[in-house]
């Protein structure tokens, strides 16, 4: 039987055929929009003047990471999942011992000389690869509680290191991602109900181990009038969103952001800046663009040739969806403030690069959706 010669041109044509250009284009639009909004939010603020250039540099670096990750076979990464797991736990331990404090007070950064790096951001994405492979290896035993508990153990250790930094937002994100992945892998409903019950039972323990400022964020969510100082910025975000109306006040014309009433407007509350300057229409457009990204990643999950690739895409989609849900939710006072950023838009190099790494994983799965072509 004659076979087609596997020339470099053949592999390039495969690359061009399966690559999801819609996904890449929407992500790049979101990054450009993010740079614009960071420029508006940090305008004439000397202490934040480097934020725009930094976001552009990390955006370019992230696109390079995306393309490199796309070219790497995700199955090769997954096959080294124990090494990856050991490395991410080691990085988290080092950041706890030798890390430096970020703006929010969490000791979650490592100084690389030319830039700071947040291991917890990378850990949440690498853990997806680890869990996907671990669950796929035990796919035939997914109905057993012991299999689910073993998978949970892989997630709990990194989550613990991140929680004590302290970073409650990413801790919850990791546990939510684990839950979504084991559910997608076929966890039984009885086990789902069991873990929901255990989660509710553990809430008092979690509350007792939180920092005072973390308890304050939850307390002000429950009783805004009882904590007027803590509620101030949430109130300013609501005012900014209300000011935007249907079409907004115009780019760099928002009163709450330009007059600096709204704090941390380039990170946690950047959605309020978007809503004030571009109104309801602009806010909905952002939601539509992020929704497209989530559905394109889930499309990659459906087209995957194996369980590992499918679970990787489910994990990436869960992170993007949950971060968006929480980030927008805390801007409109339907969720407590946790510090999770709006994907691809909020200022933050570590977050942006790791999210683009996740998109690269989804693209890698798409490129290898038909194993007979490999």
Q: Any descriptors?
A:
mainly alpha, globular, 3 strands, single chain, 374 residues
What does this structure look like?
The protein has 374 residues and is mainly α. The chain has one domain (17-43, 58-369). 71% of the residues lie in helices and 2% in strands. It is built from 15 helices and three strands. The protein has helices spanning 8-18, 21-41, 51-71, 74-79, 81-98, 119-137, 145-163, 168-185, 189-209, 212-222, 228-244, 255-258, 270-303, 307-331, 349-367; strands at 100-101, 107-111, 116-117. The chain has a three-stranded antiparallel β-sheet, covered by helices on one side. The mean pLDDT is 87.
Estimate the helix proportion, in percent.
over 70%
Biggest β-sheet: strands ordered side by side in the sheet: 1-2-3
Total number of strands: 3
Q: What's the shape?
A: globular
